[in-house]
Design brief:
With 169 residues, the chain is an alpha/beta fold. The protein contains five helices and five strands, in the order E-E-H-E-H-E-H-E-H-H. Helix 1 crosses helix 2. The chain is extended, with a radius of gyration of 21 Å. The relative contact order is 0.11.
């Protein structure tokens, strides 16, 4: 995104005339056991420690996901988690790269930018705490509109749950 919160799409690097074609590209050879990244975690002790992850670790993680989920070039991810976290690094960078998918990163995490970006993606992976915050924010906004709005939302949710029992979603 550019300053001011506008979403800017960066075109496929391989599509640029200066880029080497897929036929002439030669990947660098590497030892899969070599350290690819050191991610820091406080674990349960609160003392930060570096966790060394190899290229094979990332390869296995990405391939495991691709064995369960169908992801490819038509898909588009929304990445809001910081890439220094293992989850974000794998699902918002390495997985889309391996699948040839597009990733949308937000310059800042605010409601306006998030709502603008959501219709442009079909995959959004995040930690549960983020969804709890969204859920809490929705209910606070509805509560601010009064009891009628709260009852209306509860009724709509009940109708939606009932519809699922009949195969409607």
């Amino acid at each position: 995104a550019e300053p001011g919160g506008r979403i800017v799409e960066i075109s496929d690097v391989a599509a640029s005339p200066e880029a080497a074609s897929r036929e002439t590209f030669t990947p660098v050879s590497l030892d899969g056991q070599e350290t690819a990244a050191i991610l820091y975690s406080s674990g349960t002790t609160g003392d930060p420690k570096g966790v060394m992850l190899s290229h094979d670790n990332f390869f296995a993680e990405t391939n495991s996901i691709l064995e369960v989920f169908t992801v490819g070039p038509p898909d588009s991810f929304l990445g809001i988690l910081p890439l220094f976290h293992a989850l974000a690094l794998v699902v918002n960078l390495l997985l889309p790269m391996a699948a040839g998918s597009r990733v949308v990163f937000l310059e800042s995490l605010n409601t306006t930018d998030l709502l603008k970006a959501l219709p442009t993606v079909n995959i959004f992976i995040c930690v549960p705490q983020f969804f709890y915050l969204i859920h809490d924010r929705i209910w606070k906004e509805v509560a601010a509109r009064g009891k009628v709005a709260e009852k209306a939302l509860k009724a709509m949710l009940a109708i939606s749950r009932a519809g699922r029992r009949f195969g409607l979603n």
